[in-house]
Specification:
Strands 1-3-2 form a three-stranded antiparallel sheet, with no helix packed on it. It is built from three helices and three strands, in the order αβααββ. It is about 35% helix and about 15% strand. By secondary structure, the chain is an alpha+beta fold. The N and C termini lie far apart (about 50 Å).
Length: about 110
């Protein structure tokens, strides 16, 4: 028995209601729209009123000393975006409701 199941059993024995979670399964890879999470819906809603706002931007500055290999830096960004689909998400309206669409691949301009 895994730790999560054991913990749920312990809670049940103590009379605490345990909500059964639906497991998260990986996407089949086909590009299709997905519903927005509550956090994504909030961002989308705020963006409708102030599209140029940077409320959810998290700026960071780095000082790099020495020679910077731009080709390796570009390959690194592309690799990270390929690995993490959330970095390839855009919001698109479908029937007046926003959905997230995951781009199948990522390329830097």
């Amino acid at each position: 028995m895994n730790k999560q199941k054991a913990f749920q059993e312990l809670l049940k024995k103590r009379g605490i209601k345990v909500r059964e979670e639906t497991p998260i399964v990986p996407s089949s890879g086909e590009p299709r729209p997905f519903p927005l999470s509550s956090a994504q819906r909030r961002i989308w809603f705020l963006h409708q009123f102030e599209s140029s706002g940077g409320a959810y931007n998290d700026p960071t500055a780095l000082r790099i000393r020495g020679r910077l290999d731009l080709e390796i830096l570009e390959k690194t960004f592309v690799s990270i975006c390929q690995r993490h689909s959330i970095l390839r998400v855009t919001f698109e309206p479908v029937g007046g409701e926003p959905f997230q669409k995951i781009a199948p691949d990522f390329k830097l301009p």
